[in-house]
Design goal:
Number of strands: 0
Helix content: over 70%
Shape: globular
Membrane topology: Multi-pass membrane protein
CATH architecture: Up-down Bundle
Subcellular location: Membrane
GO biological process, one term: nitrate assimilation
CATH class: Mainly Alpha
GO cellular component, one term: membrane
Family: Belongs to the major facilitator superfamily. Nitrate/nitrite porter (TC 2.A.1.8) family.
Number of domains: 1
Distance between the termini: 20 Å
Number of helices: 20
Strand content: under 5%
Length: 436
């Protein structure tokens, strides 16, 4: 029988030894594949637009649909992590969502495509499980870094998708298929990968370092299940401050993942492949940028506590908002790419800092706090989607409005005391349940 134990105090990314590191790697890989399925259609939208005869307004509705379902799904999934366990929850989510990913090619109308995009969006709840699972596998000293690396490498799927899906599409074209068939067949690839990985995840991970929830049910009730965890999380104002913050960073990230290829294609007259590569570069920064945010947050936390982490988050959001506004005014593709990389760095670091704070809000409701905050990301994406749907404003104007909104959120976050209830849920006893 495999030896299990306490949360790790060190993150060795080159190690697969022990249930903690094996779960870490399988978790970020699962999130990577979920992102691949979630946004596999984004770089192909120029083809889909032509095939289905979509208008700008309809594309806006599709962008909103791709992230809207995730709002509710993340809250539900967060609660399931607290009660059912991350292992079962992740495996089931991947298996169920692989179906609409594989079968979206069956639709031939705007209405059908919209419904499938809504169904596929549920898979975005995978992020909550990723952050929950790394939170219970790593010690409080390193949990911010672990969460950021796992989330960042998973988010990398958004960048790789923009680069790889056009190549898969091109492969089917080379095999003799017409464009209207090739995009449909291309989506089968990520769907099959999700289905296969759901079985691997169930087989090779555990809910906690000490074992699965089912095995611990009689001996460790605190770590296994906390009744009313969603209510506990919802009553804490810090949860909602982080909800807003995540809407302003991750919400804009997935909006940009959806619109970037189309934006470069239409505004700078690039080819589909070049637009995909440029959009992919934005996502590719998750290889390191989100991790940098988590590492810096852990260091700031050790020196300045949770208040320091909160101020760091506010600063990064402010810089992100300014960067997006400047990006929107770019007149050449070179300037656009440079400013995109700049605001992307601040945005992805803010993602990492947000989830370096989440595990410390309440040890009894880690999944529910993570779910609510994660849902905030999708609420932000939905609101941003309405801007890109509007026929009265351009995409560039939409980015300017988004930049201003992010700056306002930064001001709110700066005023929140993330350390105000430390006397009973402080850093000293976070993740204590997983260490029993």
């Amino acid at each position: 029988m495999e030896t299990t134990g306490k949360p790790l105090e060190k993150l060795n990314i080159f190690s697969f030894k022990g249930v903690q590191m094996r779960t870490f790697h399988l978790t970020w890989m699962a999130f990577f594949l979920c992102f691949f399925g979630w946004f596999g259609l984004a770089p192909l939208m120029t083809i889909v637009k032509t095939d289905l005869g979509l208008t700008k307004s309809q594309i806006g509705n599709i962008i909103i649909a791709s992230v809207a379902a995730t709002v509710v799904a993340r809250i539900v999934i967060g609660k399931l992590c607290d009660s059912w366990g991350p292992r079962k929850t992740y495996s089931a989510l991947m298996a169920v969502c692989s179906v609409p990913v594989m079968t979206v090619g069956l639709v031939h109308s705007y209405e059908g495509f919209l419904l499938f995009r809504l169904a596929i969006g549920v898979i975005g709840a995978s992020f909550v499980i990723t952050q929950y699972h790394t939170s219970v596998m790593f010690d409080k000293k390193i949990v911010g870094t672990a969460n950021a690396v796992a989330g960042g490498w998973g988010n990398l799927g958004g960048g790789i998708t923009n680069m790889v899906m056009p190549l898969i599409f091109a492969g089917f074209i080379a095999a003799g298929y017409l464009p209207e068939s090739a995009w449909r067949l291309a989506m089968i690839v990520p769907g099959v990968m999700l289905l296969l990985f759901s079985f691997l995840y169930y087989r090779f991970t555990k809910d906690t370092p000490a074992g699965n929830f089912d095995d611990l049910a009689m001996t460790n009730k605190t770590a296994v299940q906390t009744k009313g965890s969603l209510g506990i999380a919802a009553k804490d104002p810090r949860t909602w401050a982080l909800f807003l913050a995540y809407g302003a960073c991750f919400g804009i990230e997935i909006t940009f993942d959806n619109i970037a290829a189309l934006y470069f294609f239409e505004n700078f007259d690039t080819s589909l492949a070049v637009a995909g590569i440029l959009a992919g570069t934005f996502g590719f920064m998750n290889l390191f940028a989100r991790a940098v945010g988590g590492i810096v947050a852990d260091k700031v936390g050790r020196k300045f506590g949770m208040i320091g982490k909160g101020k760091l988050l506010a600063l990064l959001l402010a810089l992100e908002g300014i960067g997006i506004a400047v990006f929107a005014q770019s007149s050449t593709i070179v300037v656009a790419v440079i400013t995109m990389l700049a605001f992307a760095m601040f945005l992805k670091m803010a993602n990492g800092v947000t989830y370096a704070i989440v595990p410390f809000v309440n040890q009894k409701a880690i999944g529910s706090v993570s779910g609510i905050v994660g849902a905030g990301g999708n609420v932000g994406a939905v609101l941003a989607g309405f801007l890109f749907k509007s026929s009265s404003i351009s995409y560039s104007q939409a980015f300017v409005y988004i930049g201003v909104a992010i700056a306002c959120v930064a001001a709110i976050v700066a005023l929140v005391n993330f350390d105000k209830t430390r006397q009973h849920i402080g850093e000293a006893n976070v993740l204590e349940a997983a260490e029993i």
